[in-house]
Amino acid sequence: QVHLVESGGGSVQSGGSLSLTCAGSGYTYATYCMGWFRGKEREEVAVIDTSGATSYSDSVKGRFTISQNNAKTTIYLHMNNLKPEDTATYYCAARPTSAYCSGPSILVAPGVAWGQGTQVNVSS
C-alpha cells in the first residue's frame, strides 16, 4: 500500500516562495499518476505522470512547478509568487498507472493514496 508524506509547508508573505515535498513508499505498480491538491474540496493544483508529463490549474500556471525525483517515488511542488488565495492545506495523491493522468481521474479513481496534508499560509 502506498504511503505518502508531505512536508515543506509554512508561512510566507505575498510574493514569496515555498517548496513542498511528497515522499512516497510502498509502490506496487510500475507507473503512477501523481498530483498536488489543496483545500477541503481537493482543488487540483498540478499533476505529473511517470513519464514526466505535467498539467496545471489555470490559477497556478506560470507560478508553480511540479517535478519528481529520478526514482519516481517523490514529487515536489515549487511555488513562486505566492498569493493570499494560495493559502490552504496541500495534499499529494498517487493513483495506480499513468494512463489518462489528470486531476479529475485522481479524484474519482479507486485505490488512490493520499498524504496527510501540509499547511501553506500566505499573508498579504
Strand-residue fraction?
over 45%
What's the tally of helices?
1
Q: Percentage of helical residues?
A: under 10%
N-to-C order of helices and strands: EEEEEEEEEHEE
- Uncertain regions spanning at least 5 consecutive residues: none
Write down the overall mean pLDDT. 95
Query: For the terminal residues, how far apart are their CA atoms?
Result: 40 Å
The tally of strands reads: 11
Largest sheet: 7 strands, mixed
General form: globular
Gyration radius, to the nearest Å? 13 Å
- Output the structural class: mainly beta
Notes on the structure:
With 124 residues, the chain is mainly β. The protein contains one helix and eleven strands; from the N terminus they run E-E-E-E-E-E-E-E-E-H-E-E. The protein has one helix spanning 103-108; strands at residues 3-7, 10-13, 18-25, 32-38, 43-49, 54-56, 64-68, 74-79, 88-96, 113-114, 118-123. The strands form two sheets. Strands 2, 4, 5, 6, 9, 10 and 11 form a seven-stranded mixed sheet that branches. Strands 1-3-8-7 form a four-stranded antiparallel sheet, with no helix packed on it. It is globular, with a radius of gyration of 13 Å. The model has no long low-confidence stretch (mean pLDDT 95).
